[in-house]
Amino acid sequence: MKVRAIVVREKGGPEVLRFEEIELSAPGPGEVRVRHEAIGVNYIDVYFRTGWYPPPAYPFVPGMEAVGVVEAIGPGVSDVAVGERVGYASRPLGA
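The structure assignment produced for this chain is given below.
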């Protein structure tokens, strides 16, 4: 499944933000895929982009908090169902 995302491939200012199409794989064991409706981007994301804090890896998609609707669930997921509204505020990067 292809989606559009802001991708950071190197440290720098706002000019390193790239609007790209990326491929999402199916959810793995214990994972869900969420169609985001609102995403929080905060100072920590700016710190990763500028290199103030080293990001886990390049490239990365900023954002560690969002709300949306579950679109797919991976094996072993039993606490949420497709169609449920969910929210999160934690790693990994990539909201």
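Interim note for the steering committee: The two ends are 16 Å apart (CA to CA). The beta strands are 2-8, 17-23, 32-40, 65-73, 85-89.
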